[in-house]
UniProtKB/TrEMBL annotation:
Alphabetized InterPro entries for the sequence: Spore_coat_CotJA
Name under which the protein is recorded: Spore coat associated protein CotJA
Pfam families registered for this protein in UniProt: CotJA
Domain of life: Bacteria
Organism: Cytobacillus depressus
Length: 76
């Protein structure tokens, strides 16, 4: 399955005084997976493009930090 979210398991030292983070995640931008810009790609309107940060819809990637995702489920 294709996803721009990646994860890896870092080394966890037995002598680390802090609670380890077992899985770390990161986001990769969509332009890494498009070899070249094809003609006639769908475009945002100029006002939408200013908010999205790109003119082409194929290159848009909304970033959500892991902390934002955690807050959505909490009741605070």
């Amino acid at each position: 399955m294709f996803t721009t979210k990646k994860a890896y398991e870092p080394y966890v030292s037995p002598f680390d005084p802090c609670k380890p983070i077992r899985v770390k995640t990161y986001s990769t931008p969509p332009h890494l997976y498009i070899g070249f810009q094809q003609p006639n790609l769908p475009q945002f309107t100029p006002s939408e493009a200013l908010r999205a940060g790109t003119l082409w819809k194929a290159f848009y990637d909304p970033y959500y930090s892991p902390y934002e995702r955690a807050r959505e489920g909490s009741s605070t």
